[in-house]
Write a structure and sequence with these properties.
The chain contains 9 helices and 4 strands, in the order ββββααααααααα. It is elongated and about 115 Å long.
C-alpha cells in the first residue's frame, strides 16, 4: 500500500504526496497535497474582497460600529420601557447612588450644565429677551448694548472713536422716537 487515489483529481499517487490526517482509517487525507493547495488558493481568492489588510480592518470597524449603534438603540428603548414600569425602583436606586457618590454626582451635574449652557447672546431669542428685560441697559445705550446692536465685541467698540459711538447712540434714540410716534398714530 504505497499508493493512494486522490478524490479530487482521481490520480493514483504515492502516499508521500498526501497530508497526514489522524481521523482517516489509513492516517492520510483524501486529497493530494497539490489539489489541497489549489483548493485553498481558490478559496482564499474568493474570500478576499479587500485589497489590503487595512481595508479589511476598516470594514470590520464599520460593521462593529453599526452593530453597536443598533444595540445601543435597542438597549435605550428597552431601558425606557423598564424605567416606565419601575419608576419607584429607579428613583430609589438613583437616590441611593447619589447619596453614596455625592462628589461624582455634583461633578457630573456641573459638567452637564456647562456642556448644555449657551451664552446669553448666542441665539436671536436670547438677545431679544435680554433687550426687552433690561430697560435700564437699553435706555442708557451703554457700550455693551451698542456692541450688541452692532454685533461686534465690546473690546472692538472701545477702540472706536468716541464721536462715532455718540453718533450711533443718537441714531438709536432717533429710531426709537420715530417708532414711538408711528405706534401712537
Amino acid at each position: 500500500m504505497n499508493t493512494k487515489v486522490c478524490t479530487r483529481c482521481g490520480n493514483e499517487k504515492d502516499i508521500s504526496e498526501f497530508h497526514k490526517d489522524s481521523q482517516k482509517k489509513d492516517g492520510l487525507g483524501s486529497q493530494c497535497k497539490i489539489c489541497k493547495t489549489r483548493f485553498y488558493i481558490k478559496k482564499g481568492k474568493r474570500r478576499s474582497k479587500f485589497s489590503s489588510e487595512k481595508e479589511r480592518q476598516n470594514s470590520l470597524k464599520e460593521s462593529r460600529k453599526k452593530c453597536y449603534q443598533k444595540q445601543k438603540k435597542n438597549r435605550s428603548e428597552s431601558h425606557k420601557i423598564w424605567a416606565n414600569k419601575n419608576k419607584e425602583a429607579l428613583r430609589i436606586y438613583q437616590k441611593t447612588w447619589r447619596d453614596s457618590n455625592l462628589e461624582k454626582a455634583r461633578a457630573s451635574g456641573r459638567a452637564d450644565y456647562y456642556k448644555n449652557k449657551k451664552p446669553k447672546f448666542e441665539t436671536e431669542e436670547g438677545r431679544a429677551f435680554l433687550i426687552k428685560k433690561s430697560k435700564r441697559f437699553r435706555d442708557k445705550l451703554c457700550i455693551a448694548y451698542l456692541a450688541q446692536v452692532l454685533r461686534i465685541k465690546t473690546k472692538e467698540l472701545k477702540e472706536y472713536p468716541p464721536l462715532l459711538i455718540e453718533a450711533e447712540r443718537a441714531r438709536i434714540q432717533l429710531y426709537r422716537t420715530i417708532k414711538e410716534k408711528v405706534n401712537h398714530t
